[in-house]
Amino acid sequence: MELEYYGIKDIGKKRENQEDNILINKNLNLFIVADGMGGHNAGEVASKMAVTLIEKYIKMNSIKKFIPENLIENGIISANREIYKASLQNSNRKGMGTTVILLFFYKDKYYIANVGDSRAYLFRYNTLIQLSEDHSLVYEQYKMGLIKREDMEKSPYKNIITRAVGINPNVKIDIYKNEFEKDDIFLLCSDGLYNEVSDSEIKSILKNNFPLQTLGKQLIERANNKGGNDNISLILIKVLKE
């Protein structure tokens, strides 16, 4: 397996702090986007702790025989425990938490772990597929048929998430797995991207077949041109060889 990848963070146009963090570990074939929340810069602390602790856990536990789903799930559980503990020890960090969207390649499959409303997409055969489900109030309303998908980003409740890493002693994690193919492009992103740039616009940019760095910068530029109301973070990963 051979991968090409590019990650970028942008503060956006309206926020004073950067609370997103991304991680790329080429040796582990591990990619993470985390979007933090909490006052007094606690969101930045939570997202940085998440990517660092998850990477550390997977690195330490991947040297022995493992089940991929269990490895990434336990990595997030471990990070959740530490972030929650840290939030109790400092009043300025009370209630801090973070989303986590994680992509891990192992043998002939990709594995996605998700908590919160950051997203994983797959671009294959000129089709864009959302692989993860948002843990948010508006996504719950959408699944129940109460609102249309195109109305989600306009909802006053779009920033209310129903799951996060670090806000409770326990965390529920969604795990997805499937086989990857040559030329697949995976996109991990925070809501700062997709709240500004629609799925059809993301698809139209990825169809251009430019280098990943160019595509990533175009996505960031589009999000900022359409408002840049939040931090914007993304990682693009392309499968060059199976």
Topology overview:
Layout: E1 2-10, E2 20-25, E3 30-37, H1 42-61, H2 68-89, E4 97-98, E5 100-106, E6 109-115, E7 119-124, E8 127-130, H3 137-143, E9 174-179, E10 185-189, H4 191-194, H5 199-206, H6 212-225, E11 232-241
Antiparallel strand pairs: 1-11, 2-3, 3-4, 3-5, 5-6, 6-9, 7-8, 7-10, 10-11
Helix pairs in contact: 1-2
Task: Please tell me about this protein's structure.
The protein has 242 residues and is of the alpha+beta class. The chain has a single domain, classed as Phosphatase 2c, domain 1, CATH 3.60.40.10. The protein is 31% helix and 29% strand. The chain contains six helices and eleven strands. It has helices at 42-61, 68-89, 137-143, 191-194, 199-206, 212-225, and strands spanning 2-10, 20-25, 30-37, 97-98, 100-106, 109-115, 119-124, 127-130, 174-179, 185-189, 232-241. Strands 2, 3, 4, 5, 6 and 9 form a six-stranded antiparallel sheet that branches. Strands 1-11-10-7-8 form a five-stranded antiparallel sheet. The radius of gyration is 17 Å and the shape is globular.
List its traits.
single chain; 242 residues; alpha+beta; Phosphatase 2c, domain 1; 6-stranded antiparallel β-sheet; 5-stranded antiparallel β-sheet; 6 helices; 11 strands; 31% helix
